[in-house]
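USER: My hope is that you can spare some time for a protein that puzzles me. I am handing you a single protein, as its sequence and its fold in token form. Walk me, if you will, through where the backbone shape changes along the chain. The protein I mean follows directly.
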Amino acid sequence: MTRIVITGLWICAITVLSSFAVITWMPALPKPRAEEYLEGLTYQKLRPINIPIIAEGSVQGYVIATIIFTAEAHLIKGHGLTPAPFVMDESFRQIYGDGDLDFRNLKKYDINKRLDDIKRRVNERLGSEVVKDVMIENFNFVTKKDIRS
């Protein structure tokens, strides 16, 4: 019986000493580096926007686009405002005012240039590089005759 008690006390003493040794030894280890690649970026998905396409004096149809953008989280908090309304407004302006976008005569469209212009103009309006990337989730054209009342 005494042998079991002595063995139990020995195990407790070794556990306490090893815990103490680990606690004092751990602060000397280097801290693991945090991954900085996407740190601080926030993704925001905007509600779908409907953009009328006007040609020959009447509405020909609507472009329905869903836009997603990434922005620096610490800059959004520093500004005290969200760039979402600016991205939505600039997306509407860019697509609405684009003369090359003709759905009656379809051709390849340079969407990357348009997205870069949206990002650049939003950052100009905000006064700093808040928006890092603008992406499109959905981009459709619905003709006026296909719209249900």
